[in-house]
Write a structure and sequence with these properties.
Blueprint lengths: L1 E4 L6 H10 L4 E4 L2 H6 L2 E4 L5 H11 L2 H7 L5 E4 L1 H4 L2 E4 L5 E2 L4 E7 H4 L9 E6 L1 E2 L14 E6 L1 E4 L5 E7 L2 E9 L2 E4 L7 H13 L1
Parallel strand pairs: 1-2, 1-3, 3-4, 4-14, 5-7
Antiparallel strand pairs: 5-6, 7-11, 8-10, 9-12, 12-13, 13-14
Length: 203
């Protein structure tokens, strides 16, 4: 069973639907016992980092998530990926879960071409930098769907794939140990995204 963490932030319906379409058992839960019983965990997220971090803290699940991330495949999606890092500079300075070294910074500050739109929204090709089981069914250069204004930086050692946006190499996929993250939404990325989720379901 794949447990999708329910903490009041995230696109739960489309993610659950995508997993079930693939024939994967998925359950949305905020229950610590169910998270411990799951074979894999997904941390979704949309919105602002500070608000999401506080909501996650309020659930009391942070110690459980940190413990389970050491034992089983764990995937953060979009804001859920950003929460995996040590800190975020989104409207302040907020601590992350610290599962992956690095920080989350403003895309606007990194772009030289200020005419480029932020949020970075829409389809972009994903360049695979390192082979990994998450790419078992994925082909280098396939398109995935992004919606974000901040991105992960100072995380080269954990970066598996990137997408170009102007002069910025947007961190698209990261991994450290049992923990993976995707800045884009695989559940909104058509067949390519479904194949990434299928691979995660087989890890």
């Amino acid at each position: 069973m794949i447990a999708i963490v329910d903490y009041g932030v995230g696109n739960l319906f489309s993610l659950t639907s995508s997993l079930r379409y693939l024939g994967l058992e998925a359950e949305v839960t905020g229950d610590a016992a169910r998270l411990r019983a799951a074979e894999r965990i997904i941390l979704p997220g949309v919105g602002a980092f500070g608000d999401a971090r506080q909501k996650l803290e309020d659930t009391g699940l942070v110690p459980v998530l940190l413990e389970e991330a050491e034992k089983k495949p764990f995937l953060g999606i979009c804001l859920g990926m950003q929460l995996l890092f040590e800190r975020s500079l989104e409207y302040g300075d907020h601590p992350g879960l610290g599962l992956i070294p690095g920080r989350v910074i403003d895309l606007r500050s990194a772009l030289k071409d200020k005419s480029l739109k932020v949020p970075h929204m829409g389809w972009n090709s994903l360049q695979v930098k390192r082979d990994d089981p998450i790419f078992r069914y994925f082909r280098d250069g396939e398109y995935v769907y992004y919606v974000h204004s901040f991105f992960a930086a100072d995380c080269a050692e954990s970066t598996l794939a990137t997408s170009g946006y102007g002069n910025v190499s947007v961190t698209g996929v990261v991994r450290r140990g049992n923990v993976w993250g995707t800045q884009f939404h695989p559940e909104k990325s058509g067949d390519a995204g479904l194949r990434l989720l299928k691979a995660f379901g087989e890890l």
